[in-house]
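Progress note, sequence design subtask.
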């Protein structure tokens, strides 16, 4: 093996807190990389400031530094570990690359004799510096869009005059399209040019002729030191040029690319990768293709690191890109490494797909009131989902069912747009729901040629939509009794959910399910196998589909189900679906630890999730992975197939919790806290009765279902009043109102957005201190894992507050009340597992704001701060394997840990940045301080009331 013997200790730079444009795909790639290096006996040292990730778990690296990502921290680590031989910066996104460059410019790597592996500094500079990149491509004969660089306002004006409009402005050295924009008319140019120059750290922009309407493709490549190159995946963007790839619906394999154009694109990508430097590692290359028969290809950009798309490509193909890229950085060559899915082919074997994957981004515009909701060059999505199916239509439907936006798929749910002008406007200005609007347009009878003219989405995709529409029309002419089997099978093969079919037939979802059972239209499972079943796959990574029965020569009929069930005891863990504000990577962290703990207790573990960016959907995290929507129909079929002992819902955030009622109704065992207790905590009336019975104070409140009831309540609640809908996460729709006009306006708006919802009105404790506690309860004993005090006052969502562990100015009397209340509530709710309780403290009285008997956002933070595996303990308690008394708790923390929220407001320039009861942060960092005299604490404390918005 030509693995380098001199690389014994490697520093990996993580990506820091999650922001729009850089999410948990780097937790996934970083975790995979660390495991890959340790397999080879390399000592690993990690720097990353994000407490919510698996990557920063103490078990992942030999030394984990939860420090700010600065050159100062890098120097501290290099001094503490003089044995570090090399740094691998390609696993932590743009943040890691930028820090690596800064350290290089300051001569830090040179001073400490540290080599950069996995990429060349020259490669980063060439690919990030738009002008150098353009010159290089021209030199090697790769076509590029006509473009020029501007480093000043005046130069930019000259370029615009030369090219004419529309134009694209792209700043150098930025991530997620920050500061990039389309300029359609002269009047907007000055503002957008200034924004671009300011966004670039070197104040440089590339101005190029806009390739509006061209098709966009991405290729994922790996190269070893012998210059072998493999192309892992070709991804086609359904949205044409003009929408950032992170905000585009993407499809793999490419659907509308001719073979000759694909071969040309491959050759160009390999030539580009070879020309940017002599390094072993991964690359992502983007191309634009003209939408005519000539299929002219123009290179857009190349990123010499793992990216969001490489996480997607890994999940789409089952080929672990980050893992292999790390091995290549150590000196291995592709032909020496195994493909871990087949176990029998080498990593030099290019994956082939016999299924289709569709990725759809997930947005959170409702959190940014007044934001520009159209999609463009600057990425705005906060997460993504992936659907796997045997056809594009099935994968598209599964992806739309995974989004958790109260849609059951495309159409057939009564929620489509019916207004012609609205549909045309949404098609013209790409919007977050355009994937649904295309279907609405076809239903309305707008011709495909018109939809194509407006959107420039390839006609092949539009025809796929049209077929779905025709099928819906045909099914609608039948009743549930008369629907023929072949039509029902076709609908299921094209991804329609039972709920949608029920909508078409005007019957209940359960009747469609029963009809499927009677006719033998059953969901079966196929392996994701990297090589179109040419070689046997070894890994249990499945997706569902529908097939006709196979008939053997002797007349036997059967369905080919590749997911074989054994007789081991099984546990299902429901994942948390797509990332969004209010439910992020911290729940994936909890799910992964839940899976590992269940495995330690001897169970076969089954993971159900649809988020391609996460560690939970890695092919070797659970014993079996079902890459499926966390959507009732899919879950129920998996449970019926696998027959587990039970399902864990309290680790997957609100996504999993929302399914508890259905599971309970269908007699499926919920592991840990029962549905009754979960429901009791959510139902404000019953919960306050419980608090009253236990003599625990809570703010005065009332429940209203109409604006009339709310106004009546306000007479005796007294303003300010906190209004919130029930059963929501991340404070969705919460607001503090200070008079009747505001109250009426907000209640009317809420009931329009969330019909039939019970609204809770609390008297808001103005000026109160907010605190929260997380605890584990086994039904008899309670252990509080952490009490945190918020630096910001009560009224700012706990996810947006700087939370300090342990509290910094709560007296013994107040702390005792918090402890007593936590014990009483956890036991009164019959909690088995985790619980999070939030408190408001006013005049030394501790009031209860809410209790959630589930994993919370703060659990990973407390686990990292104290160095204790609390989710592991809680899962063992849920499974009944252990009691609180069986654990030896030894929390270690010198000084204080502060959970610091991180916001992505820069993506929405005109949005009100005030904070309130609705959560807006996209991620968090952890800050350790030795004492309250620390300057950083002092600064946070002095600013604490600045943002409170009522």
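Output:
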């Amino acid at each position: 093996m030509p693995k380098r013997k001199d690389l014994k200790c490697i520093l990996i730079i993580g990506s820091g807190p999650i922001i729009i444009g850089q999410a948990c795909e780097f937790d996934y790639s970083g975790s995979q990389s660390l495991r890959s290096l340790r397999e080879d006996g390399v000592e690993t040292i990690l720097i990353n400031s994000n407490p919510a990730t698996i990557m920063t778990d103490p078990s992942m690296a030999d030394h984990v530094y939860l420090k700010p990502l600065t050159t100062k921290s890098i120097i501290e680590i290099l001094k503490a570990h003089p044995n570090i031989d090399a740094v691998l910066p390609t696993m932590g996104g743009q943040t890691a690359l930028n820090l690596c460059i800064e350290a290089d410019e300051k001569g830090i790597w040179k001073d400490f004799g540290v080599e950069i592996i996995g990429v060349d500094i020259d490669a980063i500079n060439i690919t990030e510096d738009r002008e150098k990149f353009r010159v290089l491509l021209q030199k090697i004969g790769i076509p590029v869009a006509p473009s020029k660089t501007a480093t000043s306002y005046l130069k930019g004006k000259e370029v615009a005059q030369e090219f004419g409009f529309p134009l694209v402005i792209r700043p150098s050295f930025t991530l997620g399209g920050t500061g990039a924009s389309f300029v359609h008319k002269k009047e907007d140019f000055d503002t957008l040019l200034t924004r671009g120059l300011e966004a670039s750290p070197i104040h440089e922009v590339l101005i190029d002729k806009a390739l509006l309407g061209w098709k966009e493709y991405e290729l994922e490549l790996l190269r070893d030191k012998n210059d072998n190159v493999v192309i892992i995946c070709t991804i086609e963007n359904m949205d044409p040029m003009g929408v950032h790839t992170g905000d585009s619906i993407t499809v793999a394999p490419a659907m509308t690319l001719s073979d000759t154009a694909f071969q040309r694109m491959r050759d160009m990508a390999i030539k580009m990768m070879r020309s940017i430097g002599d390094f072993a590692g991964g690359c992502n290359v983007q191309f634009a293709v003209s939408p005519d028969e000539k299929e002219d290809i123009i290179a857009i950009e190349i990123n010499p690191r793992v990216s969001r798309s490489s996480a997607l490509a890994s999940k789409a193909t089952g080929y672990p890109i980050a893992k292999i890229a790390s091995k290549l950085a150590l000196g291995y060559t592709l032909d020496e490494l195994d493909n871990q899915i087949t176990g029998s082919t080498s990593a030099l074997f290019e994956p082939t797909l016999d299924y289709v994957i569709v990725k759809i981004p997930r947005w959170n515009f409702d959190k940014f009131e007044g934001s520009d909701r159209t999609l463009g060059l600057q990425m705005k999505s906060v997460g993504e989902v992936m659907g796997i199916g045997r056809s594009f239509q099935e994968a598209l439907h599964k992806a739309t069912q995974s989004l958790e936006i109260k849609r059951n798929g495309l159409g057939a749910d009564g929620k489509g747009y019916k207004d012609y002008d609205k549909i045309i406007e949404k098609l013209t200005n790409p919007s977050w729901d355009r994937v649904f609007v295309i279907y609405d347009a076809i239903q309305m009878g707008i011709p495909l040629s018109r939809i194509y003219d407006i959107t420039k989405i390839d006609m092949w995709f539009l025809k796929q939509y049209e077929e779905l529409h025709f099928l819906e029309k045909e099914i609608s002419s039948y009743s549930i009794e008369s629907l023929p089997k072949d039509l029902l099978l076709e609908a299921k093969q094209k991804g329609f959910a039972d709920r949608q079919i029920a909508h078409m037939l005007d019957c209940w979802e359960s009747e469609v399910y029963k009809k499927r059972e009677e006719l033998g239209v059953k969901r079966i499972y196929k392996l994701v196998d990297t090589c179109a079943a040419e070689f046997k796959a070894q890994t249990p990574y499945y997706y569902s589909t529908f097939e006709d029965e196979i008939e053997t020569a002797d007349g036997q009929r059967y369905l080919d189900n590749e997911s074989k069930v054994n007789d081991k005891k099984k546990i299902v863990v429901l994942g948390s679906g797509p990332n969004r504000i209010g439910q992020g990577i911290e729940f994936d962290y909890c799910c992964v630890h839940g899976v590992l703990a269940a495995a330690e207790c001897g169970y076969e573990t089954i993971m159900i999730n649809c988020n391609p960016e996460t560690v939970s959907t890695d092919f070797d995290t659970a014993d079996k992975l079902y890459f499926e929507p966390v959507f009732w129909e899919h879950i129920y079929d998996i449970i019926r197939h696998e027959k587990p002992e039970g399902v864990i819902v309290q680790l997957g955030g609100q996504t999993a919790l929302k399914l508890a009622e259905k599971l309970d109704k269908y007699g499926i065992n919920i592991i840990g806290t029962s549905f009754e207790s979960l429901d009791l905590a959510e139902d404000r009336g019953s919960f306050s009765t419980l608090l009253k019975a236990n003599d625990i104070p809570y703010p005065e409140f009332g429940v209203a279902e109409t604006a009339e009831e709310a106004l009546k309540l306000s007479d005796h609640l007294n303003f300010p009043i906190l209004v919130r809908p029930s059963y929501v996460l991340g404070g969705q729709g919460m607001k503090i109102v200070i008079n009747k006009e505001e109250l009426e306006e907000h209640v009317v708006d809420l009931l329009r957005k969330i019909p039939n919802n019970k609204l809770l009105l609390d008297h808001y404790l103005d000026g109160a201190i907010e605190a929260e506690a997380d605890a584990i309860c086994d039904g008899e004993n309670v252990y509080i894992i952490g009490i945190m005090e918020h630096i910001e006052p009560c009224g700012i969502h706990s996810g947006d507050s700087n939370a300090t562990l342990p509290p910094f100015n709560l007296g013994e009397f107040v702390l005792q009340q918090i402890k007593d209340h936590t014990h009483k509530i956890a036991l009164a709710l019959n909690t088995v597992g985790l619980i999070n309780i939030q408190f408001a403290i006013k005049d030394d009285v501790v009031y209860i704001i809410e209790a959630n008997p589930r994993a919370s956002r703060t659990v990973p933070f407390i686990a990292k701060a104290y160095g204790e595996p609390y989710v592991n303990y809680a899962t063992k308690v849920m499974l009944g394997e252990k009691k609180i008394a069986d654990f030896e708790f030894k929390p270690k923390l010198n000084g204080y840990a502060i959970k610091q929220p991180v916001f992505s407001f820069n993506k929405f320039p005109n949005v009100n940045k005030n904070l309130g009861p609705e959560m807006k942060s996209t991620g968090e960092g952890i800050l350790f301080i030795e004492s309250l005299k620390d300057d950083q604490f002092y600064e946070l404390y002095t600013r604490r009331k600045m943002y409170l918005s009522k």
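The chain has a mean pLDDT of 90. Work on this subtask will continue into the next period as scheduled.
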